[in-house]
Design brief:
Elements lengths: L2 E4 L6 H10 L2 E4 L1 H20 L23 H12 L3 E4 L2 H16 L7 H12 L2 E3 L2 E3 L8 H9 L6 E4 L2 E4 H7 L11 H6 L3 H31 L9 H5 L4 H13 L4 H5 L10 H4 L1 H23 L7 E3 L4 E3 L7 H29 L1 H4 L16 H17 L21 H33 L6 H13 L9 H14 L1 H10 L4
Parallel strand pairs: 1-2
Antiparallel strand pairs: 3-5, 4-6, 6-7, 8-9
Helix pairs in contact: 1-4, 1-9, 3-6, 4-5, 4-9, 9-11, 9-14, 9-15, 9-18, 11-14, 14-15, 15-17, 15-18, 17-18, 18-20, 19-21
């Protein structure tokens, strides 16, 4: 998969997705290596001078007034990893942990963390040799960053904790040995640098932004397919309407819907019918989808700033030979953005589920009940709509903003925390649910086309239908629908559906 060099150029969300999911080799640029060396040399000089530096020659948090001798500095750094590794719950998935490692290397490449080059290079080696630390998903309150999960990641560097290697869950020392590596002995300040920062919430959030961005195009496609079989109008996509309310997401969504349905014989066939206006889930789809698109764009801006930021404490400045204590580890920007993104994704699922109901309800669609012949003997897509409804309802619980909560930690020294990692985990779960709901809408819309007419659908609709039907045959009689939903979800996530549509009508926006 080639190599991704971390250095001067900022990482994009797509770069991080590549690291997490395609696993190229990770590299460190020579300029970044020099910055790391210079920062470390500065720190070591101060330690020799006997300066009092937080986390290097003092304790942490509420214990920052306790002096630590030079002789105890190494033990202090191991202690911070062990004591902070208090996470619980299921492990983060491997792709998220790879993204976290990539973000750690990116931040340390800026040269403000004071780590030795050897330590940063060892993180790169973990990535390249397929050593994936076992990181429990729960335990971070989002300030001082992601202390607990990052401590679990750092433990593997010193031969402790656990890691996955080629599908085997091994102890940290065993995992390193399996790849020909020895445990590191940490220098002054390195344990603190390894646990400080927002890399976990940022990694989870960046992957969610990427998936939500893809979903924003797929849901336009699903809505277009539903609109055709529900005898909707293309008038509501007229660009003149949206030019008068030019929210970027709304304009983009309307343009997609107009192009996907272009050339539709189905829509042309009822141009002069008596219906005045479509239901809101069809007529207002650009406005609803577009508002979520704008929220996704906001989250992308915030996440890409954070991905390329220095979020540790203290921060070292080689150009002025000083260190500064601050609070860049506080996850509030991420927490707010991901709460917003979660709400936006929940709304996409909500509007999609209402279209599913219109498709399966014969009083609203004019189609056979639950989109199957021989109803009664066959239940068709009845319970698929239940599943969509269940996911939408669960999203309503998950969409409660985590960022409105705070609870004091560290003997009230850390008296306001962000809950950013909770926001990130909730957001990613909501996006996953929304993908499943849209997969169900695509399945139902394809089935409705089979039942509906011999007239041609729009160019984009036809392209999507063909890809779906290559993987999932029409539902002639009841079968296990979970398999069909999973198959369409795979097509969505692989990019196969979007690729076919864009080859037919050009790129969607």
């Amino acid at each position: 998969m080639g190599e991704l060099i971390v250095g001067e150029a900022p990482l994009s969300i797509e770069d991080l997705v590549t690291l997490a999911r395609r696993k190229p080799r990770l590299g460190l640029s020579p300029a970044a290596a020099e910055k790391i060396r210079a920062s470390r040399a500065l720190l070591e000089g101060w330690i020799r001078e006997g300066r009092k530096i937080y986390g290097m020659t003092t304790g942490f948090g509420a214990l920052s007034d306790v002096a630590i001798s030079t002789a105890d500095a190494e033990r202090l750094q191991e202690n911070i990893l062990m004591s902070h590794a208090a996470g619980v719950g299921s492990p983060l998935d491997e792709e998220t942990v790879r993204a976290v490692i990539g973000l750690r290397v990116r931040e340390f490449a800026l040269g403000h963390a004071g780590l030795r080059l050897e330590t940063v290079e060892r993180l790169v080696e973990l990535f390249n040799r397929g050593i994936v630390p076992v990181v429990p998903e729960k335990g971070s309150v989002g300030a001082s960053g992601d202390l607990a999960p990052l401590a679990h990641l750092g433990l593997v560097l010193i031969g402790r904790g656990e890691a996955w290697v080629e599908g085997r869950r091994l102890g940290g020392h065993e995992a390193l040995a399996a790849c020909g590596l020895e445990p590191l002995r940490l220098g002054a300040g390195e344990g603190l640098a390894l646990v400080n920062g927002t890399a976990v919430m940022t990694a989870i959030g960046a992957l969610a932004v990427h998936d939500a961005s893809r979903l924003a195009r797929l849901i336009d496609l699903a809505a277009a397919m539903s609109l055709e079989v529900l005898m909707g109008s293309r008038m509501e996509f007229n660009p003149r309407i949206h030019a008068l309310r030019p929210h970027p997401g709304q304009v983009a969504s309307a343009a997609n819907l107009e192009r996907i349905t272009r050339g539709s014989e189905i829509i042309s066939s009822h141009r002069d019918c008596s219906r005045i206006q479509d239901a809101y889930t069809l007529r207002c789809s650009p406005q609803v989808h577009g508002a979520s698109r704008d929220a996704i764009a906001h989250a992308r801006r915030v996440l890409e700033i954070e991905m390329n930021a220095a979020t540790g404490n203290p921060l070292f400045f080689g150009d002025t030979s000083e260190f500064l204590l601050g609070g860049n580890f506080h996850g509030q920007p991420i927490a707010l953005a991901l709460d917003f993104l979660g709400i936006a994704a929940a709304e996409l699922a909500d509007v999609s589920e209402r279209r599913i109901e219109r498709l399966v309800n014969p009083q609203l669609s004019g189609l056979p009940a639950f989109l199957v012949r021989d109803g009664g003997l066959n239940s068709g897509f009845m319970i698929a709509q239940y599943t969509a409804a269940a996911l939408v309802s669960e999203n309503k619980v998950l969409a409660h903003p985590a960022s409105v909560d705070s609870i004091p930690t560290s003997a009230n020294k850390e008296d306001h925390v962000s809950m950013g990692t909770i926001a990130a985990r909730q957001c990613r779960q909501i996006v996953d649910h929304a993908e499943h709901v849209v997969a169900i809408e695509l399945l139902c819309a394809a089935q409705a086309l089979d039942l509906f007419t011999n007239l041609k659908a729009g160019e984009g609709t036809r392209a999507a239908y063909r890809v779906i039907r290559e993987a999932v045959p029409p539902l002639e009689r009841d079968r296990v629908l979970a398999d069909d939903i999973a198959a369409v979800l795979r097509l969505m996530r692989s990019g196969a559906i979007l690729q076919a549509v864009e080859e037919a009508i050009g790129p969607l926006v």
